[in-house]
Amino acid sequence: MTEFTKIVLTERDMPTHWYNINADLPAAGVEMFPPLHPGTGEPIGPADLAPLFPMALIAQEVSAERYIEIPDQVQEIYKLWRPSPLYRARRWEAALDTPAKIYYKYEGVSPAGSHKPNTAVPQAYYNMKEGVTRLTTETGAGQWGSALSFAAQMFGIECKVYMVKVSYDLKPYRRILMETWGASVIPSPSNQTNSGRTILAQDPDSSGSLGIAISEAVEEAATRDDTKYALGSVLNHVMLHQTVIGQEVMKQLEVAGADWPDVMVGCIGGGSNFAGFTFPFIRENMVNGKQTRFVAVEPSAAPSTTKGVYAYDYGDTGKMAPIVKMYTLGHDFVPAPIHAGGLRYHGMSPQVSALKEAGLIDAVSTTQRAIFDAGVNFTQAEGILPAPETNHAIWGAMQEALACKESGESKTIVFNLSGHGHFDLASYDAYLKGELVDYEYPKEQIEESLAHLPQVG
Amino acid sequence: MTEFTKIVLTERDMPTHWYNINADLPAAGVEMFPPLHPGTGEPIGPADLAPLFPMALIAQEVSAERYIEIPDQVQEIYKLWRPSPLYRARRWEAALDTPAKIYYKYEGVSPAGSHKPNTAVPQAYYNMKEGVTRLTTETGAGQWGSALSFAAQMFGIECKVYMVKVSYDLKPYRRILMETWGASVIPSPSNQTNSGRTILAQDPDSSGSLGIAISEAVEEAATRDDTKYALGSVLNHVMLHQTVIGQEVMKQLEVAGADWPDVMVGCIGGGSNFAGFTFPFIRENMVNGKQTRFVAVEPSAAPSTTKGVYAYDYGDTGKMAPIVKMYTLGHDFVPAPIHAGGLRYHGMSPQVSALKEAGLIDAVSTTQRAIFDAGVNFTQAEGILPAPETNHAIWGAMQEALACKESGESKTIVFNLSGHGHFDLASYDAYLKGELVDYEYPKEQIEESLAHLPQVG
Asked: In the CATH scheme, what architecture does the domain B6-13+71-113+237-450 have?
């Protein structure tokens, strides 16, 4: 009874500001590159983004201020689940027989079940403040769509989600969750947009893709005055909002009397949970001489940061989104159908990419059988069932813990348990039945898509 | 930022003992009746129960001690999610436009998603301590089966769950959850027991029932030396273990600076979440002159406490379980297939029954469209998606809040949000599509089954 299992903070201990890493990058020698217009290839300004995003978010996207105050009305919604708990994984440490001390931050306690509402809530809030009454977005497996549906409901905004048709048909639970929060969910491609109709004319049975769904959501926002668009990862303001995670972790480790982390591990798809978890600590490395190692884990099937190039590329398949400098596999790269749907993206957050390029973070990749081995091992020790995306972080932490067992070192390892797997049980079923397929590094497919990068910058 | 949304406690604030209401019932004039042997009709002793339960639990079942210490190893597992948060439902109060102050305890934060692990963990622990290496149980929709699978995994005990076949086929997610925690899950009726084989011989396509699944689980435990049985509700020791809920609520209301509750609301099937939530407060009514009103809400389709009789009856359809004095609809009553599968039981906890008979608690019933109306109303205000069972408690709290709106009273209403609905989204889908069927009070069916009560006591 003397040793704690988890550290909870009260609402009084919540971070009051988001941390904007852009304020610290120049002094650390980390270069950021301006986004370019997808049509002209020229740097874009606020006016170019205004049809899609409210001005407050556009301002945050380019802000150089180090700390941006979290509005009271956002805090009120955050308090429905924040601060989230930080656990010491004592039972897992014992199961792994490691001298390492393992901690994990649990973001699955949010109503939508992941870290995604950390940005969905402020995005819905700023839209509401500027008089926007409708939001559109796209979703694959449904994590982001459900987070935005929840957030829009909290501020009385209508929400329309274009959901990739194959997921809409095969994964009804997240669709129903979105509808229960009042959203309307449309299988994409649909006949409600030009983008959708064009696809359906070519292939009436199209099962859709995230690229097509983005095009539909963006088109609807761009063509209706009352409607704007919301994106769940990649952009600077999304990374910004997620920094409540890392700030809480820092306070919780202090309350726990823990050592400063030797290594912090997160999974990356677009980069937002990793960014939110690590950026406050990366600042300590950059500014205060700390020496934490940061490990980003991505799937072998979508290895943008480990096998892609650092180059200007379109954010979407349809070339409607801005061109940004990032690690990319090429905008027409389509990842294999791994269960970690949230990590199936061809690019990476420009901020995370710049940090990787500067050598401030490490990236590794692995296959889905390996990450389910790690995830089930964790679940049987700690009880919590993680999302397949999160299992990448667990795999990464497990490698570090097993290395400590080998070396005898008692490192402090902290990872981000970004979401629960309650809506992903079909993937666990496949794993337990031995039916899970591994997808290795798709070298030739990547070489082909990288041949189509835009000739800019 | 000045008003709190939820009260979290640290692990140092966890209750150290369970509260045993049997210690206070005699002085309050509440009579309890001894359980009888299903074969002889005579009072049963510990030896009769020994094939099914470890001695520590049998001792708790009949204990007159007021406070029973929670073992350290149980506390260590409780700490994976306890203390659970208490919320002030400010957003729902505003949506209902009520002067009432509404609080809710959220038990959905456990790994299995409900209050059930509060008893599954000590049950697995005491079995482990007495050298039991295997546990059997039955499950309908899977809440209890998943709780026991989780708990057994935590103590390295094998777990075998007989799952009603129709649920096994139609609701694979909870089956997969149990398997991920290492349990083996068998569709019932099975060919692994005499009870199952008898049913299959009569009807090879039987879709099963909770009564049959209980018989299979009990038979296997009774006939194997290494195996015992675990039950998730009804029994005294189950009510006992759940009292961590109410004890935490009492501390949290104090931290919140809240008034003493005017009314507390919970749903009832076998009675355990209601018991755990209210018993520590019922003691304050019985012993310290408090005047809280306690409201138990049950489905119209299984209205044991509102429409049944207070009589001796079998705990199961197969007449293998002890005969207990309780509110019952008759042991061969089969409730309509409502979505709140956890409330489809013909009887009620003897302790809860005795309190109802003594006038210390109230009971009401309602239909499933009404409880989903209330549940969706709540979800759209507070974000959390409740289980269908829990929606009964929400409906009850809503009636109290609307009565306050009518009267202008600012009562303090507290309800137990006993579990999340992440595995129940099909029922929300039916509700949103207007396809939910209401089942009214089945008067004639109850009259018929009540004609078969045992002639004892």
From this structure: 3-Layer(aba) Sandwich (3.40)
